[in-house]
Amino acid sequence: MDARGRKGAPELIVNMIAWLADPAHWRGPEGVPAQMLLHLYYCVLSVGVAVVIAVPLGLYIGHTGRGGVFVVGVSNAMRALPTLGLVTALVMFLGLGVVPALAGLVILAVPAVLSGTHAGVRSVPTEAVDAARGMGMTPWQRLWQVELPNALPLLIGGVRSAMLQVVATAAVAAYVGLGGLGRILLGGLAVGEYDQMAVAALLIALLAVFLDGVLAALSRWVVPRGLVLANTATHDGS
Amino acid sequence: MIEFQSVHKQYGNGTVAVQDLSLTVEAGTITVLVGPSGCGKTTLMRMVNRMIDPSSGSVLLDGTDIRERDPARLRRGIGYVIQQAGLFPHRTVLDNVATVPRLFGNSRRDARRRAAELLERVGLPNDLGKRYPVQLSGGQQQRVGVARALAADPPVLLMDEPFSAVDPVVRADLQDELLRLQDELGKTVLFVTHDIDEAIKLGDRVAVLRQGGYLAQYAAPDDLLAEPADDFVTSFVGRDRGYRRLSFLDSQGVCPEQADTIRIGDTSADVPSRAGWVLALDHERRPRGWLLPDATVDGQLTENQLLAGGSLYTEGTSLRGALDAALSAPSGLGVVVDADGAYVGVVTARHVLDLIESRRRSVTTEGAVP
Ligand SMILES: Nc1ncnc2c1ncn2[C@@H]1O[C@H](COP(=O)(O)OP(=O)(O)OP(=O)(O)O)[C@@H](O)[C@H]1O
Ligand SMILES: [Mg+2]
Predict the structure, then answer these.
(1) Which residue range or ranges hold the ABC transporter domain (chain B) (predicted)?
(2) Can you tell me the ipTM of this complex?
């Protein structure tokens, strides 16, 4: 482990493999598996909480057609916020620890899920909604049987982009005390271990790809076939 | 029966869409609301299922004020068909049609069985049920829309320009299909269109609406063409209303004469000696076209030697078809066929016009109004 300073790419790869091959890095609460699971856990938890908050809100606003301006405003404002600044501010107000950091991640994830859900509901063909009303569906039936299923492609798209942002930001949040792969990254930075940092960055990227793949699979599973066909049909047409 | 009693609708922005309008739609008939774009047809129709509530006045359905009914329940008892069909993209055709029976609490199995019956009723093949709306043509989507509206067997059907987004041929098919269904089912249908021909073809009664939501005239289609109430209706029903009115004159008195005929495959020896137009028939006696007077036949008669025929007049249908057959035939002889399309005889325009004249005279002498 004498890897220090800048080196050529092949050497970096060799050193990364060496770092990974060291059994010491795979053991205990600071090891790769533990930190990876923790990272995964935080990401899924904060996106999960964001979904619980933003999906019902997005559905309500989309269904009633009231407050669309609010959705656009909120998501634009929050996209403009510097993520790390937000997390830091929360930590300053609430103190160092897991909860403020997670709250930051949730706040980060909400706009994408909210605007995805809202856009999903608004994308349902107005004739279909009109027909649903005209044939005697109650507002709840219309929401569950027509608006939600048709909103799913965009809704899940929103969750996917939220997840990508959160995976990346969670790494940086190690700097305010959150565990996860960010620990390994910052640990490497502190002692100038670039191999370790590179490994951590790679693992974060892999985790992001993995989670996105899981959500893509979920999307294929839950999105009704008729909508998939409709989308491919319009793409063929254009 | 649907009764509009002095209904009035003013939207939030001040637009008056329906002006103090009263109208009764008889049970078991098709009533068509027709008028130019923006004259309030949709607004009036949507009052029936409470998609829109009138600002004043009331709507009675079978004698009870619909304001006393819960909107969702009221709507389940009223079929609703709209212009773009409005099918649910995420559901199969079968499940689209099964929607209202499901809302009524039927099991999925029963609802689907019912839906399959209806697809057949509206003339769609059974295996279409497994497809999704995006996999259907516009005309098929409209049929599914009609099947879906009929699935719970509602006594009342509201149709808002259901056929205006399809091409003229498909539209004519769908119209015929609706008339056939109506013969079987006898629903109370309120049908909206801006096409006066469609209104005249489908309506037992036609309500012509004028810009601003006024009822300009409410009459049977024949009366509308015979006696338009004012200049607006006159211009709206169009210039050729006299001709179109022939649609309402039955075929009584039409007596076809025999023309000279020849069969496809015959040789010149078989051409009748009289020098006139000769009608060529195929082996099922269906007319194929005309041979010019004095024409000779090279070898056996084939279709390329013929002049294309005009429209065919099916025995027993209205005089409009008979006159059109005569006017469109190159020979001036309108070909009359039976229900199977086999040759019966020919009529001239003169014959049809004499018939119209003699009927008009007999009506005038009897002093009755046609
Ligand atoms: N929700 C609404 N708010 C305000 N004005 C409306 C609304 N809906 C319809 N209108 C207006 O009311 C009038 C009648 O509209 P309506 O949709 O009933 O016409 P229509 O006869 O069905 O027209 P079209 O043949 O184009 O469908 C129009 O001037 C229209 O602009
Ligand atoms: Mg309309």
Answers:
(1) 2-237
(2) 0.84
